[in-house]
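Protein entry
_____________
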Amino acid sequence: MKASCTQENLIKAISAVDKIVASNANLPILGNILFYIDQRRLKVSATNLEIGINFWIGAKIEKIGAITIPARILINFVSQLPKRRVDIEVFKNTLNIKCENHKASINGLPAKDFPIIPKIEEKEQITIRSDVLKQALSQVVSSVALDETRPEIAGVLISLSNDKIKFVGTDSYRLAEKTIKFKSEQELSFILPSRTVHEVIRILDQTEKQVKITLGENQIMFQSGWMNLVSRLTQGQYPDYEQIIPNKFKSEIIVSRSDFESVIKTTSLFAGQTSDVKLKISKTGTKAQVEVSAESSDVGKNTSFVDCAIKGVGVSLVLNSKYLLDGLKNINSEKISLKLNNSGSPVMIGPYSSAKNAEIDYLYLIMPIKA
């Protein structure tokens, strides 16, 4: 195996795959990155048996071949090289790397022992813009359950029907749903594990580049440019989350998103380990405001106010400030709407629109805490 490429392309490929490299005493080769050279390109690959990533770069090929190299030493060394031509050559199980005044030999393992990253047998395909997919996944993944005892909610539900794609995340305490318009006659639904979601967000460009999503039997592949990611899908039935979203509300609060977020952040400093903040929404004459307060024996107490508009009746309730901030950071509008019925019912938060019957593309549902 012998080839040459630029340092910029090589470090880009290694950085794209190295985050899924796993330490495994029973299978040490999982800590390695695969270099595979065919007649045209250099392929850089990594896998943790749940996710596999391949990244191809252009290279001047002199001799085909393959080897696996420990990921940590490889990325640490290549990242320090100057942005010049890099020559790589394999002799037995050693990778020799040369770049200007640098020359190294790194011990590797045979490529034949590296786990095969499966090729997806095509069943269904979706093509979507990279920036749209990246944003949609980013807006819901923080609501996914961290505990994998219920694997079906430790991932993001992606469903396609009625010319829409919905992305949903929940941990049973809060729920996020992002809807994007998507013309298609297909109807499909699957659960993407949260680890895979984070990897897709990390490696996708914030551009209009197209991403092709291919579904196979219990597996999925994302392809964009010279990169693809293959992952297992979560098996199981996602909860019927739509039944917990209220159809009607007694109260709606319209408030500046940035002002409300600032007040929640300030007050949460006094909430202690519980992260609980109390919201009291009231109206006196023509003035309406949200009073946000928190108190803990260790820190002290704080009360802050933010002006708002109220439709309906005032109400008091207690919310988890961390969950609340997670939802607010994913809403891009200047004003937000908080809809609720009483102190014990779910609060629905989303962008505010003055247009009647406006379609809302993002909603965030959070359960109050019993005082």
About this structure: The mean pLDDT is 93. The helical segments are 7-17, 71-79, 130-140, 194-203, 257-268, 321-328. The radius of gyration is 25 Å.
